[in-house]
Amino acid sequence: MTSVLQLPAELWLQVFSFLSWRDKLSVRCTCSHFRHLLDKSRPLWRGFSVTPPTALP
């Protein structure tokens, strides 16, 4: 039996491209293989930014 993790990285990156940033974060937490794929693919995170909170009065 073949593991789904043996699919080519290009195929996974194509699948991940359809996910929202929240879904990508969830997938990233499922296994080290997916975390590695997502971490090395900057274009998948385009449009995602972290804004620090403003100082409270």
Structure report:
With 57 residues, the chain is mainly alpha-helical. It has a single domain (4-45), classed as Monooxygenase, CATH 1.20.1280. It is 42% helix and 0% strand. It has 3 helices and no strands. It has helices spanning 9-16, 21-28, 32-39. The mean pLDDT is 83. This is F-box domain-containing protein. InterPro entries: F-box-like_dom_sf (IPR036047), F-box_dom (IPR001810). Residues 1-48 form the F-box domain.
Our estimate of the beta-strand percent is under 5%
- Largest β-sheet summary: none
> Might you state the CATH topology name?
Monooxygenase
Helical coverage, percent range: 40-55%
Question: What distance lies between the first and last C-alpha atoms, to the nearest angstrom?
Answer: 60 Å
Question: Can you count the beta strands?
Answer: 0
Global outline: elongated
Radius of gyration from the alpha-carbon trace, in angstroms: 14 Å
Sheet/helix structural class:
mainly alpha
Order of helices and strands: HHH
CATH architecture: Up-down Bundle
Key terms:
3 helices; 57 residues; mainly alpha; Monooxygenase
Summarize the SSE layout with pairings.
Elements: H1 9-16, H2 21-28, H3 32-39
Gist of the model:
InterPro entries: F-box-like_dom_sf (IPR036047), F-box_dom (IPR001810). The protein is mainly α and 57 residues long.
